[in-house]
Amino acid sequence: MACTSCSTSDGGAPKGCKNNGTCGTDSCNKLTVFDWLSNMSPSNGEAIFDCVEVRFKNGRKEFFRNSEKLTLSIGDIVATVASPGHDIGIVTLTGELVKIQMKKKGVNPDSNEIPKIYRKASQKDIDIWSVARDREEPMKVRARELAIQHKLEMKISDIEFQGDGSKATFYYTANDRVDFRLLIKDFAKEFSTRVEMKQVGFRQEAARLGGIGSCGRELCCSTWLTDFRSVNTSAARYQQLSLNPQKLAGQCGKLKCCLNYELDTYMDALKDFPDYDTKLVTEKGDAVCQKQDIFKGLMWFAYTNNFANWHVLKIDQVKEIIAENKQKNKVSSLEDFAIEVTLEPEKDFNNAMGQESLTRFDQPKRKKKPNRKRKNTENAVAAAPEKPKQASNNNNNKPAGGNPNQQQNKQNNPNKPNHKNKQNPNKNNNSNKPNSNENKPAEPRKPIIITKNENKK
């Protein structure tokens, strides 16, 4: 993805770029071209095409002639002609593909106006270039402050220094014409350099700055798209998209360029459909189209006197009714041609990949298990045989909260083994002690009083 100067160090941080992941030349993948002819040599001793493509900051590309017959390859840093002085750029394409790119951009390869390449950049040229690039960000902040002081309705989006540091180009966007003559004087006095102002459109601004689109990927205009075609709202209408400007607008504030990508496919599919304004004449009344399904080839019609009920018809059926209407014949009703559309069951994607629920932490905490002592006493009561009702008179003096049946069973069966010791032989088991009295009846347990606070816990 990145060049060698962007390789990561042992600590995992990118080294050499200091631009949040982009290399020192900025934007590693911006408007790159794959040279699929790089492994092919010219046949019959033909000379290599002497023009190369050079990229500067933020995707600005120009064509230069290699008049010095330098051995250039993609990624070489070269010094090119500028006015005045020289500029520093990176070679992005060489060979026959440059001729194709020049034809695409409308540049004549045989023209004498194509600038030339001076030399490969030396280390001194690269150092001057790097120092000039480091000045751009603080200059942009100060330039915006000066524009606000002059009360100019303009936005300075980017600053680009020339390779030798002799000139700075200020890119700005504005809705109307701006008189910045006094602003240029303040810029030249503040920054001590030559100043050039260049106005760009909102799409060009987004292409220079880059960003992430609503699809989650990098902007097309900043990565591979070079020609900006006009986008109309009719493209959204043909694709049956809601005319919501917030969803249809991109980072530049204009309509998204991707609305044109699938427009041709939709136009081909709509050729088989009747016109949307088609009116069907029936004995029950006229019917108009309410909705279309381009992928399934269906149309929804409703009577003009009853828009609540829609009838689904196939394209062939609609064409059949239109043919009858052209012969001045009326069909009986739409119900004779309507089809039933079965709704597909809703798919549950809550656990499609077997992952846990995202709301698993929102569930209330489970109640704690009941007290083990209370559980054991309940088991003892369940295992004990029923006793006659005469013994119920002995429970009048029992304290509140106790279990009368449990106390009754313990008094009537003194030799009965302890169920708690039977379930947990390792706890409170005194049968192996020499001083234990096996014939001694078990003492009645104290009743367990459960308060409201314990139940809450």
Secondary structure layout plus pairing:
Elements: E1 51-55, E2 61-65, E3 77-81, E4 86-93, H1 96-105, E5 117-120, H2 123-134, H3 136-149, E6 155-161, E7 167-173, H4 181-191, E8 194-199, H5 202-209, H6 220-223, H7 233-238, H8 245-248, H9 263-269, E9 279-282, E10 285-293, E11 298-303, E12 306-314, H10 315-326, H11 372-383, H12 404-412, H13 419-423, H14 452-456
Parallel strand pairs: 7-8
Antiparallel strand pairs: 1-2, 1-4, 3-4, 3-5, 6-7, 9-10, 10-11, 11-12
Helix pairs in contact: 3-4
Short description:
The protein has helices spanning 96-105, 123-134, 136-149, 181-191, 202-209, 220-223, 233-238, 245-248, 263-269, 315-326, 372-383, 404-412, 419-423, 452-456, and strands at 51-55, 61-65, 77-81, 86-93, 117-120, 155-161, 167-173, 194-199, 279-282, 285-293, 298-303, 306-314. It is α+β, with helices and mostly antiparallel strands. Strands 2-1-4-3-5 form a five-stranded antiparallel beta sheet. It has a four-stranded antiparallel beta sheet with strand order 9-10-11-12, covered by helices on one side.
